[in-house]
């Protein structure tokens, strides 16, 4: 990974979930012990860039405070029960025995 990717990943891991928020200065202070030397302006640019691709939220206060808006669900939201396999499993994986799943 290059330096920017490492820095961005570290920033993403630092961001708390609601209701807590961190200012760019607080994020900068927490990056230092991880061996990531940067500036407040770089952290600001990274957060703005990351907020395009990731669910990040900032408040209207100056300096901006940030948090992650990730939503974690206890159950998966995707069900594979209704998917159709184009090739029967026995032909796709010779020697593998597939057993039907029964509902309770």
CATH class of one domain: Mainly Alpha
Strand content range = 5-15%
Low-confidence segments, ≥5 residues, pLDDT <50?
none
The chain-level structural class is mainly alpha
Query: Could you describe the largest sheet, including whether it forms a barrel?
Result: 3 strands, antiparallel
Question: How does this structure look, described?
Answer:
This protein is mostly helical and 104 residues long. It has a domain at 3-68: Winged helix-like DNA-binding domain superfamily/Winged helix DNA-binding domain (Arc Repressor Mutant, subunit A), CATH 1.10.10. 37% of the residues lie in helices and 9% in strands. It has four helices and three strands. The protein has helices at residues 3-14, 24-31, 40-53, 89-92; strands at 22-23, 56-58, 65-68. A three-stranded antiparallel β-sheet has the order 1-3-2. A hairpin with a 6-residue loop joins strand 2 (56-58) and strand 3 (65-68). Helix 1 crosses helix 3. The termini are far apart.
Task: List the topology elements.
Elements: H1 3-14, E1 22-23, H2 24-31, H3 40-53, E2 56-58, E3 65-68, H4 89-92
Antiparallel strand pairs: 1-3, 2-3
Helix pairs in contact: 1-3
Summarize the structure.
The protein is mostly helical.
Attribute tags:
104 residues; mainly alpha; Arc Repressor Mutant, subunit A; three-stranded antiparallel β-sheet; 4 helices; 3 strands
